[in-house]
């Protein structure tokens, strides 16, 4: 795996955009009693810059603002302001190909479940970051195992927000399967239907040659997911969004994940099911790389 790099993320050279100004990386701190740390009242985005351009930047900024609204707070900067701040931070850190992490959260003015008067903060960090999965794993197809946790019902969590609290079950699930040698976990939803991986959407090629993907009714309809659907349809590939049950994996010929971090990553194994990355996987990888302007 390649997502953990050195030095540690709290001890780096560079600048972070913090509440409207660029400050030294090591000074970008919050108080111990910040509401977000105790009650997960924060939302974030993950974006990639390719050859000096942030892919679908405005869509990400719009989603950040929407996620905050879902959690009941307004970010005190406009979408255009957030776009500009992301670009400014990349320039300040000389990032040409890298990862951008905007995050908004409730501060430390109130301690308790209610935080009506807490100040809303916004920060943006960016760094060079290689592929989420190692090149070797990506080319042969990564290994997944079904997660011990499930995606919750929309009646129990704000499932369409990119909210920090929703990722704890992903961390628990990923840790559980990594300890057994797997690369990632397949998340089912509370009904037992296939949902996604821990940080990426999933696509499945069935024996009919069509591309199937779960309906995003309890998880994020990813920006990369939508991009890949458009790319597939431009190729004349039929894309079907529907309920997919785990036992259908036995009839799958190709499987891949999509996400800003994962990009398009073939899957070679899910539990006892094995797949070989084929023409559709390769096409989507190549088309996505072209769409984002990736230099290979």
Describe this structure in words.
The protein is of the alpha+beta class and 296 residues long. The chain folds into two domains: 15-127, D-amino Acid Aminotransferase, Chain A, domain 1 (2-Layer Sandwich); 135-291, D-amino Acid Aminotransferase, Chain A, domain 2 (Alpha-Beta Barrel), CATH 3.20.10. The protein contains seven helices and 16 strands. It has helices spanning 35-39, 57-70, 79-92, 135-140, 168-178, 223-234, 279-292; strands at residues 15-18, 21-24, 42-44, 47-50, 53-54, 98-106, 120-127, 142-151, 184-189, 194-197, 201-206, 211-214, 239-242, 252-259, 263-270, 273-274. Strands 8, 9, 10, 11, 12, 13, 14, 15 and 16 form a nine-stranded mixed β-sheet that branches. A hairpin with a 2-residue loop joins strand 1 and strand 2. Helix 2 crosses helix 3 (79-92). The radius of gyration is 19 Å and the shape is globular. The two termini are 20 Å apart. 39% of the residues are buried. The mean pLDDT is 94.
CATH fold-level name of the largest domain: D-amino Acid Aminotransferase, Chain A, domain 2
How many E strands? 16
What is the CATH superfamily label of the largest domain?
D-amino Acid Aminotransferase, subunit A, domain 2
The CATH architecture of the largest domain: Alpha-Beta Barrel
Uncertain runs are none
Q: Distance N terminus to C terminus?
A: 20 Å
